[in-house]
């Protein structure tokens, strides 16, 4: 057999020149792991950095004479042969650490005599080529230990959510029990078997004087907190991780997932957590105030208990998971409570306020397809609090989409990105991929263009009905509330998000000038109309693009490019690529006159203090907050874009298949609460930023304007002598308003 097997043995280059398959990992700027991509979850750790107690625990049960034999422990092997003969089967292998390395790298796991002999021969070759510590290092990093973890460092994170160096004796022994059978001894899914194996290892460690009697007794009593999350991450940044993965894959292809590349993003963990929770909370709030849509499905519940459990398990396994929105099957209903079984097999009871959302579906008169009854598949959510006070409530998976993004106003580095309600339910990233109408969140850029034409915050504009004849049809822009206030200032016009006055302002500035002006802020001009509806946001933007645009106001007038990846590092710690933040306030990047920035900022602060964004100031209480709400026609899209403390944030909500969000919904009710909840966290350690008045400004009647226009009477008012536009006046020279655009976006 030696002569037959030896010539066919593989070369041992795989162990002598070991290159572990280490997955692609994505981190926040403050080193929180937010994503991992690759078939094998592995953290390579040099043998010198593995805690001594971890090594001793493994050797105590797997190969206690490892440092004494030459690859084969003949004493143990003879014992295994005796056991096999006694049971007339191949139960015991007697494998050493070296033999396991040979098997893991080169051979199958079948216990056949031929394979065993090949294992022995390869073990001798490995022992001749490597030192004992090198062999142990291979074993510690290569072996599969369940939960998609390869190597003990990865397993430590998967089972205990901490590095090897922080484990206790009891935890070391638990991990040491995994190699024999990772499925059976997995503490996350089979704690009883895992504990039994752990006790066996602790006993061996005590008998070999690796631990003292006190350590032994303490370890037996220690209650282990095993993570059931496996390779999930504490920070929800799935959209960020996927975007980073795409960028790395574009450069390195399949090698991205095996060469140990680490990507460090500009994301901040606390900011990301705040953004995620804010989007989830406010989307659920919107969804619940628009009523219950009924159960997700219905099943017939068999009378037989075992069949009943199988039916429940089968239907719940088909439900796509969503963080904290737990699928359950209703098992009983009465006037005051609903009993259900969750996907985890837990029997729960829902009472009181927990039934509030679904009250119409519990009515005796509810339609069959809407009624909650035994067999109904529903979603439940657990209230936060002490376990003994756990309360359950009926909820539902929202159908509406939302997004939030924040960036550093000075560098463009992203601080937080939430591309949708739940990455598990929808991979489409609304921050970078969704082109939506911005509504009135585009208005600050029109007002900024007007400042360059000599208009200023106190310029009066006639807020009265306006009718524009485009030839074939008339266009009648309207204020959202149907109220017209007569002459109002530019400041008031923006704060109240008046549509008619903004159209008059754009007409005074001229469409071609304002359209070209948008390019200063990084907008794609091809996606914005060249007519007066541009003033009301009938173009298309992404939330990320909008964040970059508002950053120009927030940073003093400099264009920045939002970016995500700070640096990419290979498996050896060498920097492959690095994005250095741009020099702050570099004059070559200036696109706005400092005077323009100052006046536009003052007007947007008024929006937050007294206008449509007043909720921001009321809830955060900072005077440096500035921004603008946006609601498109029929409330199809809701926006809030704004900044404070050097942070720019943009929130959006809408349906993927565009439809109205509701007659009483606006940017102030949809997106602004998301922005506020985020900013309350993001600005905690950022002092308010005040913008001093730059040179070149003068005051007229207490309001600032450009000095060169101080004595110019032509910029004092717009259309104050008109109650309506002159008959036959077109929306813009040479063009007509869009056909069918009766009431364009507003607010």
From TrEMBL:
Classification via InterPro entries: Beta-lactam/transpept-like, Glyco_trans_51, Glycosyltr_51/Transpeptidase, Lysozyme-like_dom_sf, PBP_transglycosylase, PCB_OB, PCN-bd_Tpept
Alphabetical GO biological process terms: cell wall organization; peptidoglycan biosynthetic process; proteolysis; regulation of cell shape; response to antibiotic
Reactions it catalyzes: Preferential cleavage: (Ac)2-L-Lys-D-Ala-|-D-Ala. Also transpeptidation of peptidyl-alanyl moieties that are N-acyl substituents of D-alanine; [GlcNAc-(1->4)-Mur2Ac(oyl-L-Ala-gamma-D-Glu-L-Lys-D-Ala-D-Ala)](n)-di-trans,octa-cis-undecaprenyl diphosphate + beta-D-GlcNAc-(1->4)-Mur2Ac(oyl-L-Ala-gamma-D-Glu-L-Lys-D-Ala-D-Ala)-di-trans,octa-cis-undecaprenyl diphosphate = [GlcNAc-(1->4)-Mur2Ac(oyl-L-Ala-gamma-D-Glu-L-Lys-D-Ala-D-Ala)](n+1)-di-trans,octa-cis-undecaprenyl diphosphate + di-trans,octa-cis-undecaprenyl diphosphate + H(+)
Superkingdom of source: Bacteria
Sequence segments annotated as region (Disordered): 726-747
Pathway: Cell wall biogenesis; peptidoglycan biosynthesis; Glycan biosynthesis
Residues annotated as domain Penicillin-binding protein OB-like: 292-400
Cellular component, GO annotation: outer membrane-bounded periplasmic space; plasma membrane
Penicillin-binding protein transpeptidase domain location: 403-643
Membrane topology: Single-pass type II membrane protein
EC number: 2.4.99.28, 3.4.16.4
Every Glycosyl transferase family domain range: 32-205
Keywords of this entry: Antibiotic resistance, Carboxypeptidase, Cell inner membrane, Cell membrane, Cell shape, Cell wall biogenesis/degradation, Glycosyltransferase, Hydrolase, Membrane, Multifunctional enzyme, Peptidoglycan synthesis, Protease, Signal-anchor, Transferase, Transmembrane, Transmembrane helix
Ranges of biased composition (kind: Low complexity): 726-738
Family: In the N-terminal section; belongs to the glycosyltransferase 51 family.
Designated name of the protein: Penicillin-binding protein 1A
Organism field: Pseudoduganella rivuli
């Amino acid at each position: 057999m030696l002569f037959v097997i030896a010539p066919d043995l593989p070369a041992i280059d795989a162990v002598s020149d070991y290159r572990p398959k280490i997955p692609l990992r994505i981190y926040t700027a403050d080193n929180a792991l937010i994503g991992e991509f690759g078939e094998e979850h592995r953290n390579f750790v040099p043998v010198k950095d593995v805690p001594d107690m971890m090594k001793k625990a493994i050797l105590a049960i797997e190969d206690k004479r490892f440092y004494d034999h030459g690859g084969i422990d003949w004493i143990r092997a003879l014992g295994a042969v005796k056991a096999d003969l006694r049971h007339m089967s191949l139960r015991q292998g007697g494998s050493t650490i070296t033999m396991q390395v040979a098997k893991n790298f080169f051979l199958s796991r079948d216990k056949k005599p031929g394979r065993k002999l090949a294992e022995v021969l390869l073990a001798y070759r490995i022992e001749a080529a490597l030192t004992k510590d090198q062999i142990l290092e291979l074993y510690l990093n290569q072996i599969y230990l369940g939960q998609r973890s390869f190597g003990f460092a990865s397993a430590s994170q998967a089972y205990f959510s901490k590095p090897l160096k922080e484990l206790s004796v009891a935890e070391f022994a638990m991990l040491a029990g995994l190699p024999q059978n990772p499925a059976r001894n997995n503490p996350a899914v089979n704690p009883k078997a895992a504990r039994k194996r752990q006790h066996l290892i602790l006993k061996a460690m005590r008998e070999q004087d690796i631990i003292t009697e006190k350590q032994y007794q303490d370890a037996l009593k220690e209650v282990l907190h095993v993570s059931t999350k496996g390779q999930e991450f504490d920070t929800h940044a799935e959209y960020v991780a996927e975007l980073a993965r795409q960028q790395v894959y574009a450069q390195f292809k399949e090698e991205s997932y095996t060469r140990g590349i680490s990507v460090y993003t500009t994301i901040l963990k606390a900011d990301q957590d705040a953004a995620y929770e804010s989007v989830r909370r406010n989307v659920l709030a919107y969804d619940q105030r628009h009523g219950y849509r009924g159960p997700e499905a219905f099943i017939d519940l068999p009378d037989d208990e075992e069949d009943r459990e199988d039916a429940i398990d089968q239907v719940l396994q088909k439900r796509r998971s969503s963080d904290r929105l737990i699928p359950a099957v209703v098992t009983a209903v009465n006037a005051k409570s609903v009993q259900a079984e969750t996907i985890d097999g837990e029997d729960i009871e829902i009472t009181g306020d927990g039934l509030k959302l679904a009250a119409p579906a519990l009515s005796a008169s509810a339609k069959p397809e809407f009624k909650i009854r035994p067999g109904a598949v529903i979603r439940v959510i657990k209230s936060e609090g002490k376990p003994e006070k756990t309360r359950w409530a009926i909820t539902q998976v929202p159908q509406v989409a939302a997004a939030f993004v924040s960036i550093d106003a000075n560098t463009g580095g992203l601080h937080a990105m939430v591309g949708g309600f739940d990455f598990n339910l929808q991979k489409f990233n609304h921050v970078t991929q969704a082109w939506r109408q911005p509504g009135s969140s585009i208005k600050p850029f029109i007002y900024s263009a007007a400042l360059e034409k000599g208009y200023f915050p106190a310029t009066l504009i006639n807020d009265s009905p306006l009718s524009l004849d485009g030839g074939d049809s008339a266009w009648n822009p309207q204020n959202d509330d149907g109220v017209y206030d007569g002459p109002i200032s530019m400041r008031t016009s923006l704060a109240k998000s008046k549509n008619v006055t903004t159209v008059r302002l754009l007409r005074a500035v001229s469409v071609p000038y304002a359209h070209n002006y948008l390019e200063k802020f990084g907008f794609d001009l091809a996606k914005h109309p060249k007519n007066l509806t541009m003033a009301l946001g009938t173009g298309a933007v992404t939330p990320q693009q909008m964040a970059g645009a508002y950053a120009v106001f927030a940073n003093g007038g400099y264009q920045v490019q939002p970016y995500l990846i700070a640096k990419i590092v290979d498996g050896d710690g060498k920097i492959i690529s690095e994005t250095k933040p741009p020099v702050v306030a570099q004059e070559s990047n200036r696109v706005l006159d400092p005077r323009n920035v100052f006046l536009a900022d003052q007007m947007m602060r008024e929006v937050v203090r007294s206008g449509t964004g007043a909720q921001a100031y009321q809830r955060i209480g900072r005077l440096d907050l500035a921004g603008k709400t946006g609601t498109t026609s029929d409330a199809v899209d809701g926006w809030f874009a704004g900044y404070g403390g050097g942070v720019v944030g943009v929130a959006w909500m809408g349906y993927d298949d565009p439809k109205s969000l509701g007659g009483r919904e606006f940017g102030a009710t949809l997106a602004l609460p998301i922005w506020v909840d985020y900013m309350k966290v993001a600005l905690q350690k950022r002092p308010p930023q005040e913008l001093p008045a730059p040179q070149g400004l003068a005051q007229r009647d207490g309001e600032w304007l450009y000095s060169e226009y101080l004595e110019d009477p032509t910029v004092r008012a717009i259309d104050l002598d008109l109650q309506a536009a002159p008959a036959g006046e077109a929306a813009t020279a040479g063009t007509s308003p869009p056909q069918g655009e009766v009431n364009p976006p507003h607010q």
